[in-house]
Q: What sequence folds into this?
């Protein structure tokens, strides 16, 4: 199975992903405001869905989303993983999981986050972005970049991978709000895209990395 772009970054830079984990409760407020958590608990046939590519680690994860903006060539979602297998963990999927800000169109997928925290006695600032070129509905070429600083030590890493076959996942995402915006998509002047949110894969990596600490990262 091919290595995933964000999985590779997570293994290389655990301190940054620990920083994202500490920031998750703040991001989770957006999900509660969007009504995602309550609306998806009792999923039924009256809830519309949209089929989306998501760079997730497990094909058995489920998602709910609110549409933030509908543009002519892409849509911006506030998305949350609402459930998943036990191996994924409740910090990644469930009522308290963070919100992801996702921009997706027929050929475009963008997710990004920026966060800061103090952990292990260090001030950690980090940014993470993943961009994918979608090739139809069976393949994605994804590039992920992770950068930031621990106190005054600055670092960055990037990687690219092609997702296909069992590495490529699409999900029927329950739309719990904002569906009416798709009736009249706008030009979205200024090139609107994903605002700061939490990467789906970075969230999944938390459960794999655990609290590895900043000292090991600096070594």
A:
């Amino acid at each position: 199975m091919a290595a995933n772009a964000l999985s590779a970054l997570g293994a290389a830079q655990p301190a940054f992903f620990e920083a994202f984990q500490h920031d998750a409760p703040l991001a989770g407020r957006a999900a509660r405001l969007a009504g995602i958590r309550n609306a998806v608990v009792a999923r039924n046939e009256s809830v519309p869905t949209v089929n989306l590519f998501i760079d997730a680690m497990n094909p058995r994860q489920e998602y709910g989303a609110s549409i933030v903006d509908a543009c002519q060539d892409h849509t911006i979602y506030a998305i949350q993983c609402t459930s998943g297998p036990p191996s994924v963990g409740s910090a990644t999927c469930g009522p308290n999981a963070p919100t992801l800000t996702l921009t997706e169109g027929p050929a475009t997928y963008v997710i990004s986050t920026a966060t800061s925290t103090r952990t292990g006695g260090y001030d950690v600032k980090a940014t993470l972005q993943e961009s994918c070129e979608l090739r139809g509905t069976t393949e994605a070429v994804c590039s992920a970049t992770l950068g930031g600083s621990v106190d005054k030590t600055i670092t960055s890493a990037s990687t690219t991978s092609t997702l296909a076959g069992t590495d490529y996942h699409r999900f029927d995402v329950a739309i719990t709000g904002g569906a009416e915006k798709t009736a009249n998509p706008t030009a979205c002047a200024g090139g609107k895209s994903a605002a700061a949110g939490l990467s789906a894969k970075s969230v999944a990596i938390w459960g794999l990395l655990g609290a590895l600490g900043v000292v090991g990262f600096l070594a």
